Every structure is written in structure tokens, then in C-alpha cells.
Amino acid sequence: MITEGDFRRLALSMPQAIERSHMGTVDFRCGRIFATLGNPDAAWAMVKLTPDQQEMRVAAEPDVFVPVPGGWGRNGATRLRLAACDEATARGALLDAWRNVAPNTLRDAQG
After folding, report:
1. Inter-residue contact 31 to 22 (CB < 8 Å)
2. What is the domain extent for residue 17?
């Protein structure tokens, strides 16, 4: 189980990640949003995966990962149930999400 604080710490550990707010939800971005906290409520976070990444994670850990309803979910936005997630799983999902939106120069510099 991870907490909101754990998720926040992991998200902010990504290179050049900053915390902001969007539509009443805490978000994490490095230029573009790669994760959020608290949507639809405090039990959840969201990571911005590709549809293929989402499919793999939902199939592997359906108690942790659920597609966001509607078009956002079809495009890879994926909810992460904090109480069912461990730190390594959250870190991996956040790293994928960060890589999906990070500028090429930043992503390439990280290897």
C-alpha cells in the first residue's frame, strides 16, 4: 500500500517534475501532465500511459490499474488504486508516464 504522500514523493522524484493543480486536482508535470492525485477521490491517482502500456498493466494487476472511463482512458489515462499498489509498481508506472510526456532532450539525457 502507498499513500498520497508516497505517490507525491515518487512523482516529484522524476527529473524536472513539478507539482501544480489542474481542474481541482493535484498534478505532476515536466512540461505536460504525466500523473494526478485525487481523481475521482483520494483513493486514486492517475498515470498517463500509452494504450499498450495500459493494457499490459491492467492485465497484470487489475486490482491496482483501471482505465479512466471514456476517451481519456482509451488514450491510456489509467487510474491507480493507492491502497492496492506497492512502491515499486507505482515507481514503474510513474516512470513510464514521465517518459511518455517528457521533452525528448530531457528523456534522452536520462538514458
Report:
1. no
2. 4-102
Please give the tally of structural domains in the chain: 1
42 domain residue, yes or no: yes
- pLDDT tens-place string over residues 11-35: 999 999 999 997 788 999 998 999 9
Question: Does 108 fall in a domain?
Answer: no
SS (H, E, C) the chain: CCCHHHHHHHHHCCCCCEEEEECCEEEEEECEEEEEECCCCCCEEEEECCHHHHHHHHHHCCCCEEECCCHHHHCCEEEEEHHHCCHHHHHHHHHHHHHHHCCHHHHHHHC
- Please tell me the pTM assigned to this model: 0.93
Residue 111 has pLDDT above 70, yes or no: no
CATH number of the domain to which 9 belongs: 3.90.1150.30
The pLDDT score that the predictor gives to residue 57 is 98
- pLDDT exceeds 90 at position 100: yes
